[in-house]
Specification:
Elements lengths: L1 E8 L4 H9 L9 E8 L2 E15 L2 E13 H10 L2 E8 L9 E5 L3 H5 L3 H6 L1 H6 L6 H14 L3 E8 L5 E13 L5 E9 L1 H43 L2 H13 L6 H32 L8 E4 H18 L6 E6 L5 E4 L1 H17 L6 E9 L2 E8 L22 H6 L5 H11 L3 E5 L7 E8 L8
Parallel strand pairs: 11-13
Antiparallel strand pairs: 1-4, 2-3, 3-4, 5-6, 5-9, 7-8, 8-9, 10-12, 13-14, 14-16, 15-16
Length: about 450
């Protein structure tokens, strides 16, 4: 490639001058021109710009030209390597982009848009119509904006090819001239950036996945720390009154009357059972995670199971001096014969009742309703307690799930009970759901089991 400034005298370049002045497609003398000629058998192309012309006796004598000289093989190589389309476009003033005139556009347009350059020149509006409808207004606005501020144009948009393929196109152009009638002359280039856009989207997707994974890892780390703190508290709390009563009974064995002894032993038993319950929850959670929780099937009356769980809950209230809480049970008529694991289902009902009692204030009530309808045993446990926020409802059956509120902080717990309930119910082919109108408005847990369960005891 050679860039040169040379003074051409008309006498010495007559042959080239004929080609120069009469090359097909030559515009005014002020514009660039391309001429072709042979040097020692090699075809060259000269892209030139007439800088100025010297006249003598009103006749042109000297032309000063700045040009770029290329071998034809170099021109062909550059064209083949370039995956895009170069164009010149005339846009009349106050007209939409698609209503202008394409002066020329290279054959690379076919690889981009799926139409030939001849089609585009003949019908520019068709080329314009291939712009994706969602990108059309932004495209028009960008062209108008860059034309008004007089800077080079740059924009990215989507097209829909005649075959229905969606591509991303990047366009760059500059206003080379504004004619007397206000027509803007654009010289520009179009490039297919679909692949780079896809890679960009993929990179963003991977970054988003990484961000979510990092957030999840941080949340898991916090949950682990919180769990260790909670489990330490839950394991220690039942032992405190046990040690207190043991110290009292051992230090004053001869002075303790029968009533005090009975009270102390009852308290110790209650808190030891509570401690065992915490350990059982941990073991159950481990079995569920490993999918090794045993289910022992037998036939029993589900209504008897519910009555027994309610009676034990009432006894627990009496021991904790919370008799003012009201528990009511209504059992509809019908057959409540069921085949399942009586111990595990008793655990389910007890946990639901315990949860209701835990979050219901001293003056509140718990209503239990048992029915058998349409082939299902349905147990509803409604309370007038603290309720559940809409944000927490979808996660309340997940492991280690705690709603951050004063009620949950004061009542404690591992956050395992409801998740264990859900897994045990699902192992019996049933469902467990919860509804709440919001904080302070109570909640209703609904247990639903198929009464004619199609699983036989092994």
């Amino acid at each position: 490639m050679a860039v040169f400034m040379h003074e051409m005298y008309s006498d010495s370049l007559a042959a080239v001058g004929v080609s120069y002045l009469h090359s097909p497609g030559v515009c005014s003398a002020a514009e660039s021109r391309i001429i072709f000629f042979f040097i020692l058998g090699t075809l060259f192309g000269l892209s030139s710009q007439l800088l100025f012309r010297t006249f003598k006796h009103f006749m042109p004598v000297t032309d000063s030209i700045l040009g770029t000289l290329l071998k034809l093989s170099e021109v062909k190589q550059i064209t083949e390597n370039f995956r895009g389309a170069i164009y010149r476009y005339y846009q009349p003033i106050h007209s939409k982009v698609g209503l202008g005139r394409i002066y020329y556009i290279t054959r690379g347009l076919f690889d981009l848009y799926g139409i030939t350059s001849e089609q585009a020149i003949e019908d520019p509006a068709y080329l314009y119509s291939l712009i994706h409808p969602d990108d059309l207004s932004e495209f028009d606005a960008s062209v108008d904006l860059y034309a008004q501020i007089g800077s080079d144009w740059f924009h990215q948009w989507r097209i829909i090819t005649p075959t229905g393929e969606v591509k991303w196109i990047e366009g760059k152009a500059t206003v080379k001239e504004i004619q007397l009638d206000g027509t803007r002359v654009w010289d520009g280039v179009l490039v297919d950036i679909t692949e780079s856009k896809f890679l960009g989207y993929e990179r963003e997707r991977l970054l988003e996945l990484e961000r979510h994974a990092r957030i999840e890892a941080e949340r898991a780390s916090r949950s682990k720390d919180e769990f260790l703190s909670v489990i330490s508290h839950e394991l220690k709390t039942p032992l405190t009154p046990v040690l207190g009563w043991l110290n009292l009974l051992l230090s004053k064995k001869s002075e303790v009357d029968t009533q005090t002894l009975d009270r102390g032993l009852t308290t110790i038993q209650h808190h030891v059972e509570k401690h065992i319950g915490v350990i059982e929850q941990l073991l159950d959670a481990s079995r569920i995670v490993c999918d090794k929780i045993p289910i022992n099937y037998s036939q029993f009356d589900f209504s008897t199971l519910v009555r027994d769980a309610v009676d034990k809950s009432i006894d627990a209230l009496a021991q904790e001096s919370q008799k003012q809480k009201i528990i009511s049970l209504e059992v509809c008529q019908g057959d409540f014969t069921y085949v399942g694991d009586i111990k595990r289902l008793h655990q389910v009902v007890t946990e639901l009742l315990s949860n209701a009692l835990k979050f219901t204030p001293a003056s509140g009530r718990i209503d239990i309703f048992l029915d058998n309808k349409e082939g299902f045993i349905c147990l509803d446990i409604a309370d007038t307690g603290s309720g559940i926020s809409p944000e927490f409802l979808p996660t309340c059956f997940q492991f280690f799930s705690h709603e951050d509120s004063p009620d949950t902080r004061s009542t404690g717990g591992l956050g395992l009970g409801l998740s264990i309930v859900r897994h045990l119910v699902e192992l019996h082919g049933g469902t467990i759901t919860v509804d709440s109108a919001g904080k302070g408005k109570g909640s209703v847990f609904r247990l639903k089991l198929p009464s004619a369960i199609a699983i036989n005891a092994p």
